[in-house]
Amino acid sequence: MQNTNQHYIPKFLIRRFAEEKFGVCVYLILKDRILINQNPRNFAACRYMYNLDETELKEVLEQFILFYPQIVNALDFSDPLFIEKYFSRIEGEVNQLFTRILQQDHLVLSLEDKFKLIIFLHDLAYRTKFYRETLDMIAENSNSIINDIGKANNMTEKELKKSYFEVGTKSHIKHFFDLRSFVEFSNMILSNYEFCYAKNQGVVDFILSDNPAFQISMGMNDFCFPISPKRAIVLRCKNRGAKMICSIPNIHHVLLLNSNNVMEYNISNAAFSYEFLFGTYITLKTTLDKYTFGHFEFN
Hints:
Elements: E1 5-7, H1 11-15, E2 24-28, E3 33-38, E4 45-47, H2 54-60, H3 62-67, H4 71-74, H5 82-104, H6 111-127, H7 129-152, H8 157-163, H9 169-174, H10 179-192, E5 193-200, E6 208-209, H11 214-217, E7 222-228, E8 231-237, E9 254-257, H12 259-271, E10 276-279, H13 281-290
Parallel strand pairs: 5-9
Antiparallel strand pairs: 1-4, 2-3, 2-10, 5-8, 6-10, 7-8
Helix pairs in contact: 5-6, 6-10
């Protein structure tokens, strides 16, 4: 049976922020309401979000087909869950990586581990509903301007159509398989950031945003990616003089955080959230009692 409810924030990641023996707590930003004991499968998902037909899928993968023509015979382009299965493979490897990090309680990453994490963050930065709707908004506004200019210059409908920006699933999914985008993202991470491990020693837990990798895609100096309520991977700019969100220094790539430090990272991550925040009830309530967050969007 075809999976119609496709997640843009992986279920395995949301589950890591559930309270013990209970479901996850979710803050609904637009309704200003906290729901308790929720099933992660019901959130951060859209119907048919990654579905493409065979022709569209081949167009999306044209760069890979150009470099690796043999994949045409190896892959089932007619599978409507092709993209969903691709994400599942990446998620499975990263889930195992996070489990190992948490069990050993330290961050020792091989180059292969770093690339798994980079691929995951790259996809997550562009995979969200926020990014899909932003692309659609930009395309629709641009097409409206193109249409006005075209009609003023007596362009035909066929000429106008060639000038229009793509809207929807295909234009969105192209970003995941854009080799240039991935190479630039990887180079930015490896050249500019140190991988640090944050240990939350306070009573305030980390929270998870539904737009969790946007900041790193924008090149922020100090980026916290929580992998559990008490642990996070932090990417910090190698420039020691750069302004950081949290002032705690990393000692041998380890950050020992108190509740105020965790709150600083939580506020930063929540400020870029779109519809949902995930976490323990007490932390969501404490954060929302002190700060008000709105629906993040580009104008």
